[in-house]
Specification:
alpha/beta, about 160 residues
Length: about 160
């Protein structure tokens, strides 16, 4: 699987590995969250990502569905992660295992963006994933709307605008 000490890895597992483990793969809750992720239209297909890897020097691509399938890599090797989207949703367990191995980690995203995944950059990416995966922005807007609506209605009532 290695080309010049590099292993190209394509993750085919769940976007919500923790929730899938907790609620089961057939959970309606997880399915609804996946609908949000799949309809954002930014994730590339597996075939597209394999072709992109080959165009970037991959002899082959290792497809894994669980972090336990990540190959053992030493300090002198490099893992190239093929993120189909901009944030690498679902890749957390794989990245965690690779970070512990001491191998150099690079990312090639579906937008053809390539960068090294350092510990500092990984923290920032995990925060952005949290915002996207768990709909934090949407929840904050909804909460603000629910609080502001009665206040604005009362203000209109006091001013005689209702």
């Amino acid at each position: 699987m290695a080309t010049d000490g590099r292993v190209f890895i394509q993750y085919t597992g769940p976007v919500y590995p923790g929730l899938t483990k907790l609620f089961g793969p057939g959970s309606r809750f997880v399915a609804r969250l996946l609908t949000h992720i799949s309809h954002n239209g930014r994730a590339r297909s597996a075939e597209y990502m394999r072709a992109l890897a080959v165009a970037n020097g991959a002899g082959s691509v290792l497809a894994i569905a669980r972090a336990s399938r990540v190959p053992r890599l030493g300090a002198g090797s490099e893992a190239v992660l093929l993120w189909p989207d901009a944030n690498g949703l679902g890749w957390g367990p794989v990245e965690r295992k690779l970070m512990r191995s001491g191998a150099r980690i690079s990312v090639l995203s579906g937008r053809r963006r390539s960068f090294e995944l350092t510990a500092t950059r990984w923290r920032g990416i995990r925060f952005r994933r949290l915002l996207e995966k768990y709909l934090v922005g949407e929840a904050a807007f909804t909460a603000a709307f629910l609080v502001a609506t009665p206040v604005l209605m009362a203000w209109d009532f006091v001013r005689g605008k209702t």
